[in-house]
Each structure stands twice: as C-alpha cells, then as structure tokens.
Fold this protein.
Amino acid sequence: MTSIEDPHAVACGRRERKKQQTREALHEAALRLVEEQGLDGTTVEQICQAVDVSPRTFFNYFPSKAAAALDLPDAAISPEAAEEFRTAQGELIPALCALIGSSIDHSQQRKRMKELVMRRPELLPAFAQWMGGIRDQYVALVSERAGADEAFTAVALTMAAMSVLVHDSSAAGERPGAERLLEGVDALVAARSQRMRAAD
C-alpha cells in the first residue's frame, strides 16, 4: 500500500532541516575562526565566506559573531516546559527548579559554552548579556503565576543555585537536574544562617 505524503509538509520539513544545517554551519565556522583568530580578529564577513552565505543571512540566525561562536539560542524555554509550569501545582520554587532543571538535563551545549568562554574571555560580555535575556524570559513566565517581585526573586535565587551547580563538579551525576537544583537553592538559603569561624 502506497502512502501519500503531504507536499506542503514535506517542503516545510525540508526547509527546517536546511535552516538548521545553515545555523550549525555558521556556528561551526564562527567557533573555528574565533578559536584561531580571537573575537576581534574575526569578522562576520569571514564567517559568511566560510559558509558561502550573505551577511543578511547570517543576521537571520545570530545577532553577533560572539553569539554565533557560542551558538546562543534565542529562547531558553520550550513551549512544552512553559505549559508544564503554567499548569503546575504547589510551591513556586520547586516548580521553577523543574522548569530550569530540564535545561540542566540537556546541558552539553552549556558545557561547551562555558569551556569556550574560559578559553576566550572576550566572549564573556556576550554570554552575560544572553544570560540576562534568559533571566528575563524566566521572570516573564513566572510572573504569570506569582507577583512581579516574587517572580524576580525566585528566578534570581534559582539561577544563583544553577551557577553553584555549574562550578561544583561534585554536584554532577545521574540525578535529575531539578532535584540537584532544589538542593542548590536549599544550600544557598542555609548559607544565610552560617556562622563565621572564630578569628585567629
């Protein structure tokens, strides 16, 4: 029996694959050039030439050469994760940890970002700006379920816990990111009452 495919769906699928391939090629070219020449020594034109696309095409995918080298995504929250948060019940912080923790479970890209920034510190401003935008996306979503001030505080606390986890190799493991992230939040809160050691 022969199946009849929808030509429109096939064409859409082909276009999406082509777009993804172009994005990956731009990222790989930017990454290689920045590694070889540094950020200041690399131009958007060089990246475009390596992939054989125009600067206009480049800016359809990335806002800057630093963003291309780091492969910074525009959005941090998938529609599925956002909907799960919107329908969550119970306490705010555990629901937020589940939301942000899902990205930790797929953090290979984040690991590459961190390693690249450590090798090329000139990329840090672009990375910090991107993180600020990501924070704003989380705050906007959390504000749907909490007051504006509470949303900002909850996101700041949870992202601080994520930063602790990133720098703590002992926190890695097979456990879900949400579970480790909630432990990180608890550790930060516990630090509030930590007593100083006696002075020498």
Observations:
- Residues 79-191 form a domain with the Tetracycline Repressor; domain 2 fold (CATH 1.10.357).
- The chain has two domains: 7-63, 79-191.
